[in-house]
Specification:
The structure is a homodimer.
Chain A: H1 7-28, H2 36-39, H3 51-65, H4 106-121, H5 130-149, H6 151-161, H7 163-171, H8 175-181, H9 185-202, H10 228-252
Helix pairs in contact in A: 1-5, 1-9, 3-5, 4-10, 5-10, 6-7, 6-10, 9-10
Chain lengths: 256, 256
């Protein structure tokens, strides 16, 4: 188990996911809030689900038919009754404990995204582009969920590095102590600074006349397509805590 | 008709689409070519369509149910038998001639993307992430198609600015002369330079230690996630010519 795993490789993957999250948020920010996408009931549908929920459910079913959700970092928001792949899939290296696939914090991600995050980075308004809006939401949710559930690999590699530190805490179900062992404040500060910088660089309006110092972003963050501070807040309040929840959930059953 | 249209607004929209195209290509470049996604037949499917074709067809059906493909710049690759929207949609301002929705160069975009572009910006290889790969392809196709079909607005605004120049050529069906009238070499050179610069900025590996001059990209383009030269080539060989094909197709029927 886990012979391909290294902390450097896992960290590299997490850093690359940051770009995907920033891109997805920048794209969603093209559209205003578009609240009707989140409460309008389907015409003729008696279950009254919103367009957003309808779209994510159906998109996940399609992705499952195409062979997605086979890897433990790809976790559906609506795992009930997902169809089987219609096309041949290629196995992936099994580096995690077999129950890894069942570890999910997607309910918390869903609530966080729609109730907390969306108002922080979209402007109030309604331009009627609902279908496009929910497709962009799905991209954000997928990128966030994958980054956070990648915590399973982080936990595995940390466990393998120091089983003697983790095993007694796992046997004792010492959730808080495990959380402390997984927390590195200095690293977290660096991550927050980096995602903020990425939002500043990727969200700028590039013109041929740019001066060279715009790699640090515009003089004024308000010119960025997504406020860079939202990215550090997103990571501080939700992405890193939820990732550690995933890590603890994984570790608590690591010795089963 | 077209009271909301201005050349400045249309140009602004085209420039913003560049960012979406660059983001989509950078995301697709995370995965290698993954050729089996393009030739493996569906298990049990007798029509033998590839995973990519299956995915785009089904994704377009889902997006149509959500209310997409109502605006003339959003053109499906598989328009046959698209389902109707299941949710209430909001009208959009009708600024184009009514036949605008039927102008499509998606067949050419499809061939260009899979046969020409994909080998230019993905590395040869097969990592088995086929479902993710085709979802990323769909995002690229959608962004390219929207940018190119935005040419309908470009044509309309140019026609309105100078109907006396366009009308005789339209009556004479003078395709080449129309193409000349729509071609501004200096503008095209600027666009090519700008998309290349965007690829350099958005595709860099951002670290906290970056020096400030990296807004111009890495010293070495090979460190970029997509070679910036591919973007200028994409625009030079395909995006701008296909946009002008859309413009000419639109104008030829503008006086019907």
């Amino acid at each position: 188990m886990a012979e391909q795993l290294s902390l450097a490789a896992v960290r590299g993957a997490l850093i690359r996911e940051e770009d995907s999250i920033v891109f997805a948020l920048i794209e969603r920010a093209r559209r205003p809030r578009n609240a009707p996408a989140y409460y309008a009931p389907a015409a003729g549908a008696d279950d009254g689900q919103s367009l957003a929920e309808f779209f994510v459910r159906e998109a996940e079913a399609l992705h499952a038919k195409a062979g997605h959700y086979e890897k433990p970092e790809d976790v559906p928001f609506f795992p009930q009754d997902l169809p089987s792949p219609l096309f041949p899939t290629k196995g992936y290296p099994k580096v995690l404990h077999p129950f890894a696939s069942s570890v999910s914090v997607n309910d918390a991600i869903w609530k966080m995204y729609f109730n907390e995050l969306l108002p922080l980075f979209t402007v109030d308004g309604d331009d009627g582009y609902y279908a496009e809006t929910v497709a962009l939401d799905f991209a954000c949710l997928k990128a966030l969920s994958r980054r956070i559930h990648y915590g399973k690999y982080v936990a595995e590699v940390k466990f393998q590095d120091a089983p003697q530190d983790y095993s007694p805490l796992i046997h004792a179900k010492a959730t808080d102590a495990l959380m402390n062992l997984l927390t590195f404040k200095a690293v977290e500060e660096k991550v927050k600074k980096r995602v903020e910088k990425k939002a500043r660089i990727f969200g700028q309006n590039v013109t041929l006349e740019d001066s060279a110092d715009k790699n640090e972003g515009s003089a004024d963050d308000s010119e960025c397509k997504v406020n860079p501070k939202v990215l550090s807040e997103l990571y501080d309040r939700w992405v890193m805590p939820l990732t550690k929840d995933v890590e603890v959930d994984y570790l608590l059953r690591r010795l089963d």
